[in-house]
Here is the input.
Amino acid sequence: MTLLIQTLIQGISLGSIYALIALGYTMVYGIAKMLNFAHGDIIMVGAYTIYSTIALAHFPGWLGVLSAVVFCGVLGVVIEFLAYKPLRGAPSLNVLITAIGVSYLLQNIALLIFEGKQKAMPLGDFDFPDLKVGNTGITVTGEVIFTITLTVVLMIALTLFINKTKMGKAMRAVSEDKDAARLMGINVNRTISVTFAIGSILAAFASLCYGMSYAYIKPTTGSMPGIKAFTAAVFGGIGSIPGAMLGGFVIGILEKLSSAYISTQFTDAIVFGVLIVMLVVRPTGLLGKKIREKV
Amino acid sequence: MLKVENLNVYYGNIHAIHDVSFEVKEGEIVSLIGANGAGKTTTMHTVSGLLRSRTGSVTFMGKNISHTEAHKIVNMGIAQVPEGRHVFLQMTVEENLQMGAYTTPKTLKEDLEKVYALFPRLLERRKQVAGTLSGGEQQMLAMGRAMMSRPKLILLDEPSMGLAPILVDQVFSIIKELHAAGITVLLVEQNAGKALAISDRAYVLETGRIVLAGTGAELAASPEIKKAYLGG
Here is the structure.
């Protein structure tokens, strides 16, 4: 019982990281109708930004996080402007290949600057005390509490932004009907830029949580969580924001459960296997919208 | 107010609009009529900036807007009610209207009241998601949404399409109300009889060309029009 509860809590924590990343995938897909496969590498960039600010420039921890948030946000907008905007209206395969190209570009720039040897994340400022739950034998680590709390706060903030602010509503309008949105006076290009910025900022926070849990980073650090988060986004229904949150938690819990009870070696096989089953049974994902055929 | 001169629009290599010229003067209701595929919607989209012309110009209140982006054209005073309504189905009625006021947030409250006064049905359903509205209600919403930007010129693309006869009459009486409120109207309609009846002037489009022009009454009386578009 203790093991089960511990595993579930760890799963929610890991799922939080996936959910933060999955939100970026799903929002960009919803608005720009493209799969931004470079999104996972933004986490890596965020992690190296934190590393550089704290370990190399010796700034305090909070400044490391702040610089990662700003740098990733700007980088997301720049990538969209340079790589994807010129391809607006091009076949989706072209955009997909470009995104994969951007992903390799980011990884190799990181390799040039920081070399392949892994670096320890200098997150001493984020060392929170563990929580022992009575005499049940259950211990919740500080980073798990921090990760889950941060994710919940960010999700609430994002939900309020999307539903209550003018920009958030404009984003929903653009994702539903681009031409109608233009007829309302909404600047679609600017809305897409804001979406990339928000997705990348969430990824920067994910890189903080990732660094707290895994302690080491290397240039390919973003790939696996990126792919898992993409799986989560598809699982929840790509384009759906609540779907990405739910999908993230489901994939995180599934991953932890299968490594605790089945085998750590089969974890990835099980996660992706579940995705395949999902796509066969319910291609639109858990909360995905049915695509209406236009007559 | 709106002057379209020698417009040529292409879809890829397909020449959809040939040398189309027409004019809408302030305070008029002008109709473009014609069969399916004649180029009515293409012409509308070119005016509102959703499509670009290859040659020719669109001038609105003395300014050439041929190369102006769609979202800026809204700001200048042109609102389009697109064919098939295109309301935001997953947003509430009120959010749809808020989107209509995207360029005019200062007068949002006042304009909401106006639109609700004109369409009491929308007030009843303001918290409802637009996808749950009937076709007629969606058309009202699309028209109300366009009014929210305080347009000087409103482009109505097939507003009566797919509606029950009683609703068609209602749509046409709303067009008259908008016009009475001082909005100039450019109307695209397949229901040529009803369109001509309320129009000051009209143009007939055939395979991307304007083939006939005149006042609403002239065209309604023309034997050619009667034969081709009025079922007699």
